[in-house]
């Protein structure tokens, strides 16, 4: 794997320079990737530039990422050494030299049986040319495409994944610890200043503790680390839009969602664990009832196995409607349970004929709800808003950073998703390199952030069975 130091940049082993061939998907995943190969030589196949040029007009995340990569490369324009990029190279700083290269006559070799019309094969041929012309240095193809790496290895090319922003799966923060305390210590949580944490344990800001008595297993408490001591939950007996959390992890998530001092919340868990309905219920409560924020912004990446968002008819809202099904389902379920709050909200419609589309359309017309995708986020500032980003496992770390930098004054951001590989359709990320696990890892030590992993499926017995057995 590509070795990365504590500053997030690639270092050479033994001080020797290496030749790195950069695949198109690496540029799409991280437009700033070229700056992460300190003291090495980079080779950018010219076919990569052609692919980025073709992709930049595409709708959805792929087009957005391609445009970001093109902007990152625009710094090369106007440089005198760009004209000698095939030979001397372009100096990027930090000992990095970039060369823009092509495959030359490598594909004419009789021992290669690759289709020259395929761009991947042209990139492989470029790597072979670099290996042949520069045998004094190790040549490594960096690609996020597994099939590409397998083909490279079959041709004798060392191939590696782009590792700079990957999060070790075994170290992924889950947001809570389960410990055993004495009865006296458990009672101390409810004291005036809370309970000082055990000296031999380390706690992160807003981390939770499920403390169980050593002598009496039925005696337990859920506590939260406030930076100094362990204190009881503040919102344990509250409800939001008629919804109450129904298991331990949901209570932790509810605590973070309801607390105005926690400005960024991440929730992970399998299908039916309650991520969307909890976030949606608190958003409705905070905006429509408590007036703590002025609007709800619902954001979802448009990654599909079939047609992209650009092929759907209608306005932006109409195009986004199929992607927002999880929010619509959550609001429909919340509105159909009994609650004085929802009874007041439904006076505009007949109770028995309630339509979630009409309800959301009314809120959209008043500016109370916005439905957006990442394509339209650059340059925006989201102030006085409760922002929910669904399916956040589909975005890259670059997009996650872009989204969080949209945060304006009096805003709360919630990222929700399932970061397991079988829930990721975006070929540019996986369970360890997606934007959701990236922000969980990078933001966990901040006192205005919090995270909880939801383990239990509560949607239905069938959903629980499917999650466990399939």
Structure report:
The chain is α/β, with parallel strands linked by helices. It is 31% helix and 17% strand. The protein contains 15 helices and 16 strands. The protein has helices at 24-29, 46-55, 60-73, 119-133, 146-154, 183-188, 248-258, 275-289, 316-320, 325-335, 340-345, 356-365, 397-404, 435-443, 461-469; strands spanning 19-22, 41-45, 90-93, 96-101, 139-142, 158-160, 176-181, 208-213, 220-225, 230-232, 264-269, 295-299, 369-372, 385-389, 411-417, 449-454. The strands form three sheets. The protein has a six-stranded mixed beta sheet. The chain has a six-stranded parallel beta sheet with strand order 13-12-14-15-11-16, with helices on both faces. The two termini are 31 Å apart.
Topology readout:
Blueprint: E1 19-22, H1 24-29, E2 41-45, H2 46-55, H3 60-73, E3 90-93, E4 96-101, H4 119-133, E5 139-142, H5 146-154, E6 158-160, E7 176-181, H6 183-188, E8 208-213, E9 220-225, E10 230-232, H7 248-258, E11 264-269, H8 275-289, E12 295-299, H9 316-320, H10 325-335, H11 340-345, H12 356-365, E13 369-372, E14 385-389, H13 397-404, E15 411-417, H14 435-443, E16 449-454, H15 461-469
């Amino acid at each position: 794997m590509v070795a990365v130091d504590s500053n997030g940049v690639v270092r050479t082993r033994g001080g020797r320079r290496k030749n790195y061939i950069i695949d198109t998907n690496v540029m799409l995943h991280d437009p700033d990737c070229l700056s992460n190969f300190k003291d090495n030589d980079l080779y950018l196949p010219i076919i990569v530039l052609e692919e980025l040029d073709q992709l930049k007009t595409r709708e959805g995340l792929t087009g957005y990422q391609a445009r970001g990569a093109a902007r990152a490369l625009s710094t090369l324009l106007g440089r005198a050494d760009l004209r000698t990029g095939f030979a001397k190279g372009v100096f990027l700083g930090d000992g990095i030299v970039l060369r823009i290269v092509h495959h030359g006559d490598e594909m004419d070799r009789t021992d290669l049986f690759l289709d020259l019309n395929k761009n991947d094969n042209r990139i492989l041929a470029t790597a072979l040319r670099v290996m042949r012309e520069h045998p004094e240095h190790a040549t490594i193809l960096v690609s996020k495409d597994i099939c590409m790496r397998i083909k490279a290895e079959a041709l004798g090319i060392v191939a590696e994944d782009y590792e700079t922003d990957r999060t070790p799966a075994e170290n992924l923060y889950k947001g809570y610890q389960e410990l055993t305390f004495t009865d006296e210590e458990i009672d101390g949580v409810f004291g005036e200043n809370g309970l000082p944490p055990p000296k031999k344990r380390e706690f992160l800001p807003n981390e939770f503790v499920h403390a169980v008595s050593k002598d009496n297993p039925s005696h337990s408490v859920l506590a939260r680390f406030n930076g100094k001591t362990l204190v009881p939950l503040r919102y344990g007996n509250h409800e939001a839009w008629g919804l109450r959390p129904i298991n331990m992890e949901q209570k932790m998530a509810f605590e973070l969602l309801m607390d105005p001092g926690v400005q960024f919340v991440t929730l992970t868990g399998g299908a039916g664990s309650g991520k969307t309905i909890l976030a949606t219920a608190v958003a409705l409560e905070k905006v429509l009832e408590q007036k703590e924020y002025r609007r709800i912004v619902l954001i979802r990446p448009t990654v599909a196995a079939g047609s992209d968002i650009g092929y759907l008819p209608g306005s932006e809202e109409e195009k986004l409607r199929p992607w927002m099904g999880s929010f619509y389902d959550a609001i429909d379920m919340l509105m159909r349970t009994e609650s004085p709050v929802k009874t007041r909200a439904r006076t505009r419609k007949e109770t028995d004929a309630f339509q979630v589309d009409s309800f959301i359309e009314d809120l959209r017309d008043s500016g109370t709800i916005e439905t957006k995708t990442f394509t339209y986020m650059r340059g925006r500032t989201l102030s006085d808003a409760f922002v929910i980003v669904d399916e956040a496992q589909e975005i890259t770390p670059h997009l996650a950073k872009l989204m969080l930098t949209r945060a304006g004054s009096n805003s709360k951001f919630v990222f929700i998703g399932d970061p397991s590989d079988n829930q990721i359709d975006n070929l540019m990320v996986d369970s360890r390199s997606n934007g959701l696990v990236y922000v969980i890892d990078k933001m966990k030590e901040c006192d205005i952030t919090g995270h909880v992993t939801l383990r239990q499926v509560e949607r239905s017995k069938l959903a629980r069975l499917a999650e466990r057995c399939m």
